[in-house]
Records
---
Amino acid sequence: MRFPYRNFRLGGRKWRVKYVTVQTGLKYNPSAADCHGWCDDPTATIWLIKGDSVEYTLITFWHEVAHAMLYSMGYRDHDEAEVDRLGQMLYQLHTTGAGVIELER
Ligand SMILES: [Zn+2]
């Protein structure tokens, strides 16, 4: 399955998505073995750890995008429960969106 984005723009910055093994993740985050992904605001990078199902990886991705959105809006302290709910909404939008509307000028 193809992943939705290798990179994207939020809040004027280009964000990158890294999809790595736990071993590679540990080079960048000592907690990599205990999480499925993380959002690194200073480098504008979303990290995803390989090994989960496609569905779980997508849920993790949208959760981390929710963090990225909050960072991009200037919020530094995130409530994980709120981030999780926002991420679930983004995941739902991603997985249920269908059809195309042709816009008219
Ligand atoms: Zn989180």
Note: The first strand starts at residue 7 and ends at 10.
---
Amino acid sequence: MLNLRLIEPVTVVEDSQLAGEIPYMATEDSSEQLENLASGIRRCVACRLHESRRLAVPGEGPAKAEIVVLGEGPGGKEDATGRPFVGPAGRFLDNLLQNQGIARDRLFITNCVKCRPPENRTPRRDELKTCTSLWLERQLELISPRIIVLLGQVAARQMLGETATVSKLHGTMLERDGRSYFVTYHPAAALRFDWIAATLREDFEALGKLLAHAPHSP
Ligand code: SF4
């Protein structure tokens, strides 16, 4: 059973924490702390995924990012470069962001697991649990973003619970445990299905409106 509060786009923004009430925890050395986490991720052997990776992909973006974009796990291009969302799905994501005027420097982009699963299979439950508790949770604590954008079912279930369903929750803001989430499909799915591409565009339009009502941090 999900214990979530659904937030209607735009109308609830004034009353929600999106209006700027969340204090930024980032300090002068938070970039350094984030980089320390990245160094740890690059050396991590805590789950079986390290065996087949070329490069771990810690994520990238500013320590004071307003928005964290969270995917499932690195693909082939990411594994080869050590950078998140640089393949075809990443280009689609870039296009979605550009269309809404959302600058990349407002984002920290990362994944639930930091190493590519073999053959791009779905990360297993134990891999997700290990990687999120070791690394993702610490990244989120440091960055303390206003909104976490969840791309796809794996990210949605990891953050919102096992019964979360993207087809029901997409395009909406939710709160859980003091964090604000926006759920949508994974851009990789948009490359296979036109209807998902169209839905993603609509969802990012809704996200753009939400962000327009949530002023930038000073
Ligand atoms: S997926 Fe995460 S926990 Fe597993 S080896 Fe990579 S960094 Fe470590």
Note: The helical segments are 30-43, 76-81, 88-99, 125-143, 153-160, 166-169, 187-190, 194-212.
---
Amino acid sequence: MEKYIANALRYENGMQYERCGRSGVLLPKVSLGFWHNFGGNDPYERSKEITRYAFDHGITHFDLANNYGPPYGSAEETLGMLMEEDFRPYRDELFISTKAGYDMWPGPYGNWGSRKYLLASLDQSLRRMHLDYVDLFYSHRFDPATPIDETLQALVDIVRAGKALYVGISRWPLEATRTAFRYLREHDVPCLIYQGKLNMLNREPQQEGILDLCRESGVGFISFSPLAQGLLTDRYLNGIPEDSRMSKGKFLRKDMLTEELIVQLRSWNAEAQAHGETLAEMALRWTLEQPGVTSVLVGASSTEQLQKNMKCLNPKI
Ligand SMILES: NC(=O)c1ccc[n+]([C@@H]2O[C@H](COP(=O)([O-])OP(=O)(O)OC[C@H]3O[C@@H](n4cnc5c(N)ncnc54)[C@H](OP(=O)(O)O)[C@@H]3O)[C@@H](O)[C@H]2O)c1
């Protein structure tokens, strides 16, 4: 591929930016996740094309985790190669996050929420991504077996050490989230953002009170899997395509696609069409409209999908 020069109009291409809670940070309303499609088993040139398209259209936020791939770590390695080849000159225009919390390496120190694991994992992530620091580091899940102060103090110390500019938490239950927001604020490292799953098929963060707590606390909220891994698109309306996540992977199981769900998806699809939009656009717009939501974190297996998804902000994109 030819040498990359970012589109001079990247901030005039229709992207909108939203303040993340009560912080100084603006995030694009559509952010790009590296969970699928950026691993060592995926075509690198395609990952590169999607990432270039994203940045050229104002998507400044890329979200990763230590174990994204497969194999584990390989999505971060892909980002490391992209930094070397394309994005080094634009480092200060990018907001890059990673996480630790799920199984990453064997033995008692490669999982959950100990200080030992979180600090070692972030050092590994920085090496794989060829970065000196990340903009945002998350505890990827709450660890009920580790004292909560140990996990939270590790986050504070990571910021003090200059390895992350901000911290966030993902998938923490409500009471632990409340404790985390208070602890981090009292230690002068306020939680920037909560990452949770909110979409038209899953409203738990609203039902459990997470979104209200984020709003009251001045913490942003970013929705992962806002398309329910592709269910909230036209992908599965007429069967299961061979190249789809449901056919290939283990995270979107075929038994999730019940008759009842298909009826619901077709009905929403008809509603979207009646308004002159796609189901994906409608689903992303719905999530962005929920009070307290800062950004939707989409995945894409092609540039075309990403382009379609950005139309939720502006049909002309
Ligand atoms: N914190 C956490 O625990 C957690 C958990 C999950 C995800 N995340 C984050 O959230 C990000 C997004 O998650 P996700 O990939 O599940 O998001 P998603 O946007 O709900 O689903 C993305 C998938 O939907 C399909 N798709 C997307 N746009 C489409 C379109 N316009 N038309 C048809 N199909 C379309 C593609 O699947 P096909 O492969 O079938 O084309 C794509 O890979 C992840 O990368 C990660 O950064 C975080």
Note: The domain at 17-233+278-310 is CATH 3.20.20.100 (TIM Barrel).
---
Amino acid sequence: MRKTKTPRQKIRVNNRWLLKRLIVFGAANTYGLKMTDEEYELLKSSIKPRKKKTDRQKQIVRMDDMCSEIIRLRALSRVSGCEYCGKPKTIKQLQCSHFIGRGNFHTRWDLDNLGGIDSHCHMDLDENPEIHEAWMAKHIGSKSLDNLVTRSRSTDKVDLDKIEAFLKESLERWRLEG
Ligand SMILES: [Zn+2]
């Protein structure tokens, strides 16, 4: 059953992936990659067309982007950097971390649920839920944390339009202040 692969085949697999990406981005010719027309056509035909995003999916991406910018601007105004370790960071070095995961739409764009932190701390907190929870209790206060958890358990329908309007307005305010 066990197939032994030679390193050459391994590289070939990686190349295939890379070649496909280069074809998708129209860069295969630019880089003058060595392949026959036949190989090119074969690779091209094996690339699955990307599924078009629905309007709802597009809206969610827009909301995530706005939310992330708000949270990072907020972190800069609060501590000029990472809200967890306090180290100075630029907006590009900050990420938007979720305490209750993104899968929960009741709290995905809830500003209490989010922190502007650097990639290192982001990974640490995601890997250590207990530490994350203890930090959240300190960061937003245990009462707010309790309320956040309650909101996450809501059974109400999530009104994306309403949340998006709120995010838009908040972002405009944060950009003016920044
Ligand atoms: Zn940090």
Note: Residues 55-79 form the longest helix (25 residues).
